[in-house]
Amino acid sequence: MRAEKRRLGLVLGSDELSMSYRTGQGQVVQTEILSCETGLRQGQLADLQPCLAELVDRFPRAVKRADVTLNVALPDPLFQSTELEFEVFPAQKKAADDLVAWQHAAVLDLDPATRAVGHVTGGAGDGTTKVFAHSVSQELVTALQSQLWEHALLPSRIDALGSYLFAQPTHQAQSDGIDLFIGNGWWRFNLRGTGLSPLYFAAWSEKDASLAPVWSRLKRMVMSQGASWGNAGILRLIHHPERDITHVTEIARELGLEVDFMPHCKGKPLSCLVAEDAN
Description:
With 279 residues, this protein is an alpha/beta fold. Helix content is 18%, strand content 26%. It has 3 domains: 7-76 and 137-158, Nucleotidyltransferase, domain 5 (2-Layer Sandwich); 80-135; 177-264, 2-Layer Sandwich (Nucleotidyltransferase, domain 5), CATH 3.30.420.
């Protein structure tokens, strides 16, 4: 039996540090939250060693492994936006054209050359998509990386997220299923288990909070998979506490999907971010 790979989630808030992980069945094994001044209110990363030491010591020894992938959520003040364009491969062009916005979600790789990706503002129809890249200083990356390594946490990448936002790793397809993110004025979902990188879709503005376009597009995606959809059957839902999601279960049943609700905790989405397993 192969060793179970876990995805470890580390969340840095303005005044708290939390960590959590999931089993292969998606069950949350342990979640810890520490009140800890991180210096992020001033846009700086304070010495996290004392907090990390206390936090990591609370986890089973099995979690302290080099094969975990670490997700880190950082508040918006650490980001600086710049406009850029990038090419989209032909197979992803349709998805890129459908993208409306990525709502400031940024992916931070430890490779300095590719450490920042921003939100999509629209496809130009020629395979080029304009984004706003949220840059994070190399000093911040190095400081965070070194402090994590002190505790035998060797992440291959860091997902840097703004407030109320979530991102899924795109470097590999994970277990079959759909992730649906419903925010306060936005939504997006990805379809996994297709051998493709997760595809994100965003819609509804602050003025149009209807769920109708969500379900119509979601239904088209599910039906388009046909037999290849297999036994996915899980709709993972992360929603803003102020968003009405009463219709979610009914629609999911129509699609033959089981709903796994993952609401924000007490209106603090960063504190409740739980990264999923790397299968």
